[in-house]
Specification:
mainly beta; Maltoporin, Chain A; 16-stranded antiparallel beta sheet; 53% strand; globular
């Protein structure tokens, strides 16, 4: 929508910003649509790679396998902004964005060897070196162990290091200026919620402020370390159980500094506040892509697969895949304090302690019926209403029932019911998203929904 047209419509009494529109208001909105492309992004990539593998020798446990490979790639990105169009709608964020372009050359070399030490015990060793012309290089090793103790028991474990270079958009993405997700007091013009003399409280107190984000030439790669250990049990042919413990350390994470962090400590981040020359207006706070601190997380992946014996009435399979997060601590800056995020809302989002997907599937050709469950555990809320108020977000569990007929070789027909028991999203105080009362990132407000889908193969 064109900004000036909205102001004109409200001022003339044609538009009602607080309720349903009249026919005149609806027509006015239709005539105010701003159509067109305000950002044209183009990325070109050309690459040359090779791979080779062979068995080097025979060991006690089998052949010693070896593989080697490499890659050379050149990436180029161009971001062209139509400021004439974007400038008519401030919500686009691109009103004053500038054209950007950048390129890089990437070279990589990797090798892998699979060592079967003895029967049912093998070690996999691998390494990869990547070099980026703009952010440098890094070598990352991997060691994995697989031990089949018996036909019913498998042990496995691994250790590896990771490397992720910033994308071209992380480095060269155009600078955009939009509104913060939450309302904030300007720490200079509205300290402690009271506007200073000459400042308009309707603009500087408890209002969405401007925030500018985009790429940065100072972004460096992030690195990681991961180790895991697990067991797979198959006590019967019908039942498979697995459990894998994992521990991940991520350094120099590539992200934007959360607005909650910037507005939560003005003294620390005052260099990110940009005011006009007379310091009578906050132009924006700066939240460009940058390297934050560490993330330290650990948890457990659990799975169950149970297949009932084949019967005249069909086949029945039960599957459960879940993850328990024991720890999720992160830093908003290098060397800064750690924030505990597991089981609670911190800065911008919660980390669920437990989540799973479960399903029961029945099959008797040409029919298939599936009942699935998606579960997210509850967590401590953002509590943006009152720091002293403790709000708990309830767990969210939804069921979906679907059936498929595939009796025709060309057509499959599926019908189903999403959110079978019409479960409402749990209430939350979160204000990070514009939607209030529930979190649209993890829940669905539609309730019970019926659908039919047909797939034609040709």
């Amino acid at each position: 929508m064109i900004d000036e047209r909205m102001i004109e419509g409200v001022g003339a009494g044609i538009l009602n910003p607080f309720g349903e529109q009249t026919a005149a208001g609806t027509a006015f909105l239709q005539n105010s649509l701003l159509l067109g492309r305000f950002l044209n992004a183009k990325v070109n990539s050309s690459a040359l790679d090779f791979k080779a593998s062979r068995d080097l020798m025979t060991m006690a446990g089998g052949p010693l396998g070896f593989a080697i490979g490499g890659e050379v790639r050149h990436d180029k990105a161009v971001y062209l902004v139509n400021r004439t169009l974007a400038g008519q709608a401030s919500s686009s964020g691109y009103a004053d964005a500038q054209d950007q372009r950048g390129s890089r050359t990437i070279q990589a070399l990797f090798a892998e060897v699979n060592v079967p030490l003895i029967k049912d015990l093998e070690i996999n060793l691998a390494g990869r070196y990547d070099h980026y012309s703009d952010v440098g290089g890094n070598f990352n090793p991997k060691v994995a162990l697989r031990w089949q103790l018996s036909p019913r028991v498998l042990m496995r474990g691994s250790y590896n290091q990771g490397f992720r270079a910033p994308t071209l958009y992380d480095i060269y993405g155009p600078q955009t200026t939009t509104n913060t997700a939450e309302p904030w007091d300007d720490p200079v013009l509205c300290p402690n919620g009271t506007a200073v003399a000459g400042a308009n409280p309707n603009l500087v107190c408890n209002q969405q402020q401007n925030i500018r984000s985009g790429g940065s030439l100072n972004v460096e790669p992030e690195t990681s370390r991961t180790y895991s250990a697990g067991i797979v049990l198959e006590p019967t042919r019908a039942l498979t159980l697995s459990a894998d413990y994992w521990d991940i350390l991520l350094k120099d994470q590539i992200n934007e500094l959360a607005e909650q962090t910037i507005f939560g400590d003005y003294q620390k981040y005052q260099s990110l506040y940009v005011y006009n020359a007379t310091r009578t207006r906050l132009d924006y706070v700066l939240a460009n892509t940058m390297n934050l601190g560490e993330i330290r997380t650990r948890g457990l992946d659990l799975s169950l697969l149970y297949r009932l014996p084949r019967a005249p009435w069909g086949n029945l399979t039960l599957t459960v895949d879940g993850t328990y997060v024991d720890k999720y601590n992160y830093q908003n800056e290098r060397g800064g304090p750690f924030t505990q995020n597991a089981g609670r809302y911190a800065d911008e989002n919660p980390v669920f302690r437990w989540r799973h997907n479960a399903s029961i599937a029945w099959n008797q050709a040409p029919w298939t019926m599936t009942l699935t469950n998606r579960y997210l555990s509850g967590y401590d809320d953002q509590n943006g209403v009152d720091p002293e108020f403790e709000q708990r977000v309830d767990a969210y569990s939804t069921w979906t029932l679907s059936g498929t007929y595939s009796g025709n070789k060309d057509i499959d027909v599926t019908a189903g019911i999403k959110n079978l028991f019409d479960e409402d999203p749990p209430y939350t105080n979160q204000t990070t998203r514009f939607q209030q009362g529930y979190d649209p990132r993890y829940t669905d407000p539609l309730g019970r929904t019926f659908y039919v889908r047909a797939t034609y193969k040709f």
